[in-house]
Structure prediction request, 114 residues.
Amino acid sequence: MLNLDLTHEQLVALAHASAAARLERHRHQTMDVDDVLAMRRLAMIGDGLTHMAGNGAINTVRLGAAETATLREALSEWLEGVERRGWMRDDDREAMPVVRQVLEACGGFAGALA
Prediction:
């Protein structure tokens, strides 16, 4: 179980990045059952982050091993995609350093699964 105490700014950035990653990952893909389940898991995590960001306060996010892996992978993919793309939307520009900071502070969440 991973417990993260996240600020409002961090919640907003992670929610943005997870939603963008979900869209990019599944945009032009024919999906099988596993893909649909992965998309739904990421949607659930992103929706939870968005909901928690709505109160404007610090929140503790608790993620199990599967959710931690899903979020870590999506955030990493999103960061790589934004950098590879060569251009950024304003929301991406604001979220990118925050997402990178959260991933680095958590060691990419690597220690959370041990």
User: Anything to note?
Assistant: The two ends are 9 Å apart (CA to CA).
